[in-house]
């Protein structure tokens, strides 16, 4: 059984959910009265929270993410000049810091685009700067679904011990669907069809099970951050669902056993 709760802005993304499905991103700080701090595993035990789908999936290697991190390090090493007399260790540290900064900037832009897409599907017009990205998301959804009726950014908690927040879900011609938006820097049209990995499918299948959806259509929509207006849609085939679900359940069991955590 799952419970859906009202919207929370995506840019506030957290990793824990209450049993009623509401996100619990932060808790009051005891050391700094009046301030909030990120929720920890200890807090989750005390408050009977459940971890997010993405927390569970991160227990497995993520090839796409690791490849991107390696590319960022290589780009930094190729473009960052070495100072005269600088040691290898100092130069390596600067390369790592530069790559981390590029990663931070990419994440911030992705978060901004994601929030604009969320607000649009909830009825709020985007800024001129965000409009190309938002319209790419809208075109992706309406190209694949006939007369969709949607809800944006709804969270849930599942009795199996996990929770999550869906970017977009609803009905199209009587069939449920779930859409998850991903942003992608360094866009390449020829490689767009290779963006979907098993972790993306696991996330969507876990959402579908969490909401007890029967025969849903599951989509990943990849939005280019450096080529405004470009996107790629990957729809997961039904014959993949059982395999992806078994993978997720295995990771969920592993996470629960590793952390001795049973909600």
Structural description of this entry:
The protein is built from seven helices and ten strands. The protein has about 260 residues and is of the alpha+beta class. The protein has a six-stranded mixed β-sheet with strand order 1-6-7-8-9-10, sandwiched between helices. Helix 3 crosses helix 4 and helix 4 packs across helix 5. The longest helix is centred in the middle third of the chain and has 34 residues, at about 90-120. The two termini are about 15 Å apart.
Describe what is shown at a glance:
By secondary structure, the chain is α+β, with helices and mostly antiparallel strands.
Question: Proportion of β residues?
Answer: 15-25%
User: Roughly how much helix do the residues carry, as a percent range?
Assistant: 40-55%
Mean pLDDT: 89
Uncertain stretches? 1-14
Number of helices: 7
Radius of gyration over all CA atoms, rounded: 20 Å
Kindly name the structural category.
Answer: alpha+beta
| Main sheet strand line-up | 1-6-7-8-9-10
- Main β-sheet: number of strands, strand sense, barrel status? 6 strands, mixed
Order of helices and strands: EEEEHEHHHHEEEHEEH
Quote the distance from N terminus to C terminus.
Answer: 14 Å
Shape from CA axes? globular
Number of strands: 10
């Amino acid at each position: 059984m799952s419970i859906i709760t009202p919207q929370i802005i995506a840019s506030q993304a957290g990793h824990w959910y209450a049993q009623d499905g509401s996100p619990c991103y932060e808790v009051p700080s005891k050391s700094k009265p009046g301030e909030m701090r990120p929720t920890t595993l200890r807090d989750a035990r005390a408050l009977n929270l459940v971890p997010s789908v993405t927390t569970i999936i991160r227990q497995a290697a993520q090839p796409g993410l690791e490849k991107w991190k390696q590319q960022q390090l290589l780009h930094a090493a190729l473009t960052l000049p070495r100072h005269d007399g600088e040691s290898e260790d100092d130069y390596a540290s600067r390369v790592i810091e530069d790559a981390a900064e590029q990663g931070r900037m990419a994440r911030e832009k992705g978060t901004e685009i994601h929030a604009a897409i969320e607000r649009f599907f909830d009825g709020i017009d985007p800024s001129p700067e965000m409009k190309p990205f938002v319209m790419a998301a809208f075109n992706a959804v309406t190209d694949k679904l006939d007369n969709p009726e949607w809800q944006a950014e709804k969270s849930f908690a599942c009795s199996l011990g996990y929770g999550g927040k869906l970017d977009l879900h609803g009905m199209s011609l009587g069939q449920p669907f779930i859409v998850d938006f991903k942003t992608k820097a360094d866009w390449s049209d020829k490689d767009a069809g290779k963006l979907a990995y098993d972790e993306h499918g696991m996330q969507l299948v876990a959402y579908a099970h969490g909401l007890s959806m029967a025969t849903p259509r599951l989509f990943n929509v990849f939005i280019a951050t450096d080529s405004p207006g470009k996107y790629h849609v990957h729809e997961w085939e039904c014959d993949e669902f059982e395999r992806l679900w078994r993978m997720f359940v295995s990771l969920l069991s592993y996470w629960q056993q590793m952390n001795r955590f049973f909600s």
